[in-house]
Design brief:
Elements (H helix, E strand, L loop, with lengths): L7 H27 L11 E3 L5 E3 H14 L1 H12 L4 H8 L3 H20 L5
Antiparallel strand pairs: 1-2
Helix pairs in contact: 1-3, 1-4, 2-3, 2-5, 3-5, 4-5
Length: 123
């Protein structure tokens, strides 16, 4: 079944679930590579963030865990937007929030993550 053919609310929920799954897969992959003792080489899983800055996935995961402790809804919004590529409209549909509220919360989440990634606690 194609995602485009799934109707409204179910499609948005499926994409939100896929976002969380993608995050988990990427983090598990990075952890597996980091703990591979036989090969004795450093593996860095990085990605691009807005503005072209390279980002270490482990740092992002650590920041998302901290964000979840502060505001789980913001963390879920980041999952949907960053890992799932969901639009503001899709996120509004899934969460039941207005598009304006989703935009405000996305700006807040991005600002918090930018600060958290520039000033990591666990490094």
């Amino acid at each position: 079944m194609q995602v485009e053919r799934i109707e409204g609310d179910n499609r948005a929920h499926l994409i939100a679930l896929a976002s969380r799954l993608m995050r988990n897969i990427l983090v598990d992959h990075a952890r597996l590579k980091a703990t591979d003792k036989r090969k004795h080489h450093k593996v860095e899983l990085t990605t691009q963030v807005e503005g072209g800055q390279r980002l270490d996935l482990k740092s992002l995961e650590s920041a998302l865990i901290r964000l979840k402790a502060i505001d789980e809804g913001l963390m879920e919004l980041v999952e949907m937007r960053y890992f799932g590529g969901m639009t503001v409209e899709d996120i509004a549909e899934v969460t039941g929030l207005s598009e304006a509220t989703v935009k405000r919360r996305w700006l807040a989440a991005r600002a918090w993550l930018t600060d958290a990634l520039m000033h990591p606690v666990d490094q």
